[in-house]
Amino acid sequence: MSTPAGGSRLAAVIVLAAGEGTRMKSATPKVLHRIGGRSLLGHAIAAARAVQPQHLAVVVRHERDLVAAHVAEVDPKAVIADQDEVKGTGRATECALEVLPELDGTVLVTYGDVPLLAGETLHTLVAEHEQSGSAVTVITAHLADPTGYGRILRGEDGSVVGIVEQKDATDEQRAITEINSGIYAFDAAVLRTHLASVGTDNAQGEKYLTDVLGLAREDGGRVSAHVVDDLWQTEGVNDRVQLARLGRELNRRLTEKWMREGVTIVDPATTWIDADVAIGRDTTLLPNTQLLGATVVGADATIGPDTTLRDTEVGDGAEVKRTEAHLAVIGPRATVGPFSYLRPGTELGAGGKIGGFVETKNAKIGEGAKVPHLTYAGDATIGEGANIGAGTIFANYDGVAKHHTTIGKHSFVGSDTVLIAPVNVADGAYVGAGSALTGDVDPGQIAVARGRQRNIDGWVARSRAGTRTAEAAEAATRHTDSSSEGQDQA
Ligand code: UD1
Ligand code: CA
Known about the structure:
Radius of gyration: 33 Å
Mean pLDDT: 96
Number of helices: 10
Helix content: 10-25%
Largest sheet: 14 strands, parallel
Shape: elongated
Bound molecules: uridine-diphosphate-N-acetylglucosamine, calcium ion
Low-confidence stretches: 1-5
Structural class: alpha/beta
């Protein structure tokens, strides 16, 4: 994204977000619904920030506290403007001007429910507006079906003379297919002056922002249109069908952007990448992969198929297949999956391995360490080069508190072991398979914590006489020279 044109006087962007959005049929305010990992309003704010205005105001009213809290979270520097009971886009804009300092220069107005508008488009709008010395420049588009939109009225010479709303338009005006996107650049003084004289004498009894264009023109100002061909950028979300439609298009744009940056995406249609994700070159994304939130993937990695990574960091050359991970760090050249679940606080070192059917949580796994099969590792530190056998459980929770387990460097935990935390296995130690470990193990030791094996001679003949098992035992005994004494075996 480029910075504003040299000499631009972009005083403010005003994002209108006071509308109710009834067609969403939702307890959540419309502008807080999400696509691409951000709220609709978050996308609008990101586009606004891309042109680096001196001030950014968001106008709120419906569910004002929820929306204001969200704005404070995504953009603490944005100013909240409360719209009063006077309705309309003009009143909304006026309410923003009231809470901002006296502005001088260019003011943009955008909508909180138009998520695909690009910062680059606003940048072009500002540049055109300022170079042409216009009082107002409006983004317009030609729609096959312009129903519902304000129509752009042009004079004999083709210049813009005003905007008429669908509900106020004559049949002749309704036949116009050039529509008002609702996104404008205004000269601050023009906006302030003419908004003050806009009334509510129209079909909807609202104070229309669109009336400012006609007034500016009558006053001798120049009103320009910036026509966009990319209709997606002006499309607002009104219901959940549009939410999904724009969500898919946003994803199409994001997957395309990453492919152009050198990422192989085998099936873009089933690969979902959030707006804030970053991916290195020559990484391959296999079908059904979702990279969400603030996930960062390095170069030469392979992710997927069927993998969901949220707020997760993956190093260069790592391989992650059929895995769910949240707030995890996967080191360079490490391998994960298939069928594993990495929960917050998982950190897998360089070249380490988390294999199949493994769940980890708050687990620091050292360089080259391996947790290959069927393990739960929670609240654990596993040293570099250590090996955790199949079916090992880090029993971290006693029903009241969570406890930590440490496995030292190059130590070896045998299969089907329960490590009952808190417990420490030193560097260079072994734990015998099937142990239920409750005490620490020192360097060089092996700990074996399980019942000893007892073999009882003749038990099958005595207790299971007449069964096939007894027959097999008899046959085997007859054909064998070796007779086994009852003996203990470790
Ligand atoms: C408005 C334009 C119309 C344009 C259309 C593009 C006016 C009078 N009309 O239509 O020419 O074609 O947008 O979508 O401006 N909002 C507020 N406060 C309000 C009313 C609206 O903040 O009192 C916000 C809404 O949250 C929304 C945006 O303004 O983000 C547009 O409102 P909406 O009602 O969808 O647009 P219209 O007024 O129908
Ligand atoms: Ca609308």
